[in-house]
Amino acid sequence: MVVSMSSKTVKNPPVAPAFTANAELRADLQRALVDITALSLVGKQIHWNVVGPNFRDLHLNLDEVVDIAREGSDELAERMRAINVYPDARPSTVAAQTSVPQAPEGGVITSDAVDYIVSAINAVTTTLRDIHDSVDEADPSSSGILEDYTQRLEQQSWFLSAQNYSA
């Protein structure tokens, strides 16, 4: 089956937006979008394949992480469009550009799943923190989004990592 997709040039809107992101802001928000999108994907991958002690609690907690990541990717992408940036979260782009470590294949024992998802969350929050100051300087409205998702994801990292502590 051959699918033909026509490319049409999208013309600028008749009235320009009040604010347009500069190149650095576009790149920073794109980095955040790619990483938070990747987190939603690997979170589901682990969710489907986790096994072992405390399975149910971890399975449900992973859905919370995925929900946060999906909300974050949507909010970031919509913010990007509001400031005249085209977001790119196509699978090939996400795979090529993410800093999130690759998820393990197959079944993952709960303690390893916790370690993995915490490392994935930490990769995202590191990106969000790395770009925060330059985003804040260019567009404080966008930096507020980064702050919100940094806080929410760091809380999840803490909740999850606490499962692997021992006395």
TrEMBL record:
GO MF entries: ferric iron binding; oxidoreductase activity, acting on metal ions
A UniProt-annotated Pfam family: Ferritin
Domain Ferritin/DPS: 28-163
Superkingdom as given in the UniProt entry: Bacteria
InterPro entries, sorted: DPS_DNA-bd (IPR002177), DPS_DNA-bd_CS (IPR023188), Ferritin-like (IPR012347), Ferritin-like_SF (IPR009078), Ferritin_DPS_dom (IPR008331)
Family membership: Belongs to the Dps family.
Protein name: Ferritin-like protein
Lineage: Bacteria, Bacillati, Actinomycetota, Actinomycetes, Actinomycetales
